[in-house]
Design brief:
Elements lengths: L21 H8 L4 E5 L5 E2 L14 E5 L5 E9 L13 E8 L5 E7 L12 E9 L6 E8 L5
Antiparallel strand pairs: 1-2, 1-3, 4-5, 4-7, 5-6, 7-8
């Protein structure tokens, strides 16, 4: 198992109090990306809502994204700590990843690897699931790594 990307001491993510995003977090623990999909219009959406963003149906549920590989839509190289636990860490890369296998919805995560490397919009990335089994409660983060295309 690879080491944790970010420093310990950050607030851990937990499902929203209403439980709406619980299936997303449970999916990450199983190394699956589950996002909402409308049973009526079959469109994907993220962030989670009680109704479909497209047709306003209430028939939304969570499904596993058939292909979790994505492309970098945007990114931010963070140089300044945004939390006291990050005071000795920086820079790091936060990416907005578009998922072609899910109507191009976009999700956020850290880009693993050299934080000072060039980032190319449109580059392919694959998910990395960072498990924190000893946390109370346990959780998993969704991170991203570049897809290296052999030449």
């Amino acid at each position: 198992m690879r080491g944790f990307y970010l420093a310990p001491g950050l607030p851990q993510p937990i499902p929203a109090p209403d439980g709406l995003d619980g299936p997303f977090w449970a999916g990450l623990a199983e190394e699956k990306i589950r996002l909402q999909r409308c049973a009526d219009c079959r469109r994907w959406q993220w962030g989670p809502e009680w109704i479909c963003h497209h047709c306003h149906s209430e028939a939304v549920g969570f499904e596993e994204v058939p292909s979790a590989e994505g492309v970098i839509y945007s990114y931010e190289r963070v140089w300044h700590p945004v939390h006291p636990a990050l005071k000795d860490q920086g820079p790091y890369l936060v990416v907005l990843v578009e998922l072609p296998g899910a109507d191009n919805v976009r999700v956020v995560g850290n880009l693993l690897g050299d934080p000072e490397a060039d980032v190319v919009i449109g580059s392919r990335v694959r998910p990395v699931f960072e498990h924190h089994p000893d946390a109370d409660p346990p959780f998993t983060l969704l991170q991203w790594e570049p897809v290296i295309i052999p030449t």
